[in-house]
Request: fold
Amino acid sequence: MRASAVMDELGEAVRTVASLQGRTYPYPVEAITPPAAIIPYPDIQYDVTAGRGSDQLDFSIVILTSPVSDRAGRDRLLAYMDGSGAESIKAAVEAYNYTAFDSVRIQSCTVEQYIIGDIAYWAAIFALDLIGPGTT
Reply:
């Protein structure tokens, strides 16, 4: 499984959320216009099954809605964190038809400040588990 292909497909899944079309980056960036989504680099666990059968990639998806000094971003951030609905990142990611890997599950979501450039944004950070073939 190629991590770059996984990042690209995760980006496509997140883009199915209408408010994030054109604002989803399947790579780290230096500047954004909120709301925006970023797919940072993964942690990789090799050989989860024997004989290079599968690897596990631990990804996160970062959704940024507003600078921390802006209270209006709260409701938008919470909508992305819903388990279902049109703005739900969990629903969008888990419903997408992937070819770069076998399965994905969003484990959890936390809210943190996330700094891009010199600006601190409110961010929902989704933790994902991906399983896919150990060979490319």
